[in-house]
Amino acid sequence: MKSKLFLSIISLLLVASIIGCAQAAPASTKSAKLVVGFAQIGQESGWRDAETASIQFYAGQNLDTIDLKFADAQQQQQNQIKALKSFIEMGVDVIGLAPVVETGWDAVFAEAKEAKIPIILVDRMAKVDESLYATFIGSDFILEGNNAAIEMSRLIGGSGNVVELEGTVGASAANDRKTGFHDELAKNHTGITILASQTGDFTRAKGKEVMESFLKTYEGQINGVYAHNDDMALGAIEAIKEAGLKPGVDIKIVSVDGVRGIFEAMAAGEANVTVECNPLLGPQFFDAAAKLKAGQTVDKWIKSDEGVYRSETAAADLPNRKY
Ligand code: AHR
Description:
Strand order of the largest sheet: 2-1-3-4-5-11
Shape: elongated
CATH class of the largest domain: Alpha Beta
CATH architecture of the largest domain: 3-Layer(aba) Sandwich
Radius of gyration: 25 Å
Number of strands: 12
Oligomer: single chain
Helix content: 40-55%
CATH superfamily of the largest domain: Response regulator
CATH topology of the largest domain: Rossmann fold
Number of helices: 11
Bound molecules: alpha-L-arabinofuranose
């Protein structure tokens, strides 16, 4: 009788421990590392390469604690959506996304929310309900546009004609830099006319191509170029030189980003102002991701600290530039 009771207790304990193991299994398969999926836009600019390097470098320095899954979308939203879906499928802890355009994210963000995977928007915003993402890490693009307008007005003495090289159509960086520039001119610099605005897709090659056509259409009328990024400004500088004019002198150049190439152009007197936009977001990104994995809350907008740089100090600034 005693031995029967003993056997039943043993078998009950065994069953309980098997059930316990089965329930514990998912937790033990979950990586102790911070597993992050990052969907990058592509490689359209020096700025973007610097951002990618910042994220990959940080992960590479912390291989014992971070597992980074990186996808390059080659500037296609559908590739970014595919990447997000595969990150959800993998069950990563956090998703990072630099959205190529602002709209069209609701469905895939809702899938991530359903899977309890927080999304961090990096450098560009998405037009979705606030509940669908955890935080936005990046710049105030409207302010960048305002600052560019103030600088352009100073450079051309408050009146004259400007052409605008816009970023990728539908990107928050392009939309807001345009709004910020146009609003500031309309409010406080009414002597300035924007002759034309056209996208150069944030690339040097397209910036040059569009500038060539502006120079033909508005021959002798352009006083300034406002480019939504430095790469397009560098392309425009080439076009202006090929047209036999002096960039930075005959036509003033104001752009956004602060990459090394524009500082070199400013030091050579071929560009005038760059409004900084910081791409070195790796440390902030992984810090926020770790907090989210730990169930902590983070600010809805983690803003970057940025300056405005002029040609007068470019040679001295150059050695301190990190990208
Ligand atoms: O989203 C930030 C913008 O994207 C940068 O200004 C530009 O250079 C990049 O490609």
